[in-house]
Amino acid sequence: MKMGNHELDYSNIDEYIALFPTDVQATLRRLREVIKGAAPGAEEAIRYGMPTFRLNGNLVHFAAYKTHIGFYPSSSGISAFQKELSKYEVSKGTVRFLIGEPIPYDLIERIVRFRVKENLAKGGK
Q1: In this predicted structure, what is the pLDDT of residue 124?
Q2: Which of 35, 98, 102, 103 is deepest in the core (most CB within 10 A)?
Q3: Which domains, ranges and CATH numbers included, belong to the chain?
């Protein structure tokens, strides 16, 4: 498991997901599909040791840990959805979803769409 270790034993998102138990893999695959659906033009990468989606720069990251799934939509993605995220553990650029609890995929989709618009505007497109 990753558990915050930045030594890469993987070079792409498929390899990253394969490192985790089956139930966590299912959550990570679903999260990846939601992000891809909301940002169809984004490129997949590994950045900072985490699965990353890029579109005119970093769009969002996610990572699995022992007790939670970290979702990293930047501080702007957090502040724009602050009220809806209030029931989750949130810090400046991070949302933590506890493993075993329902993941708000619809909210994640809206946050990713917000970030797409933000990054496209930043890029002058």
Answers
A1: 59
A2: 35
A3: 13-122 (3.90.1150.200)
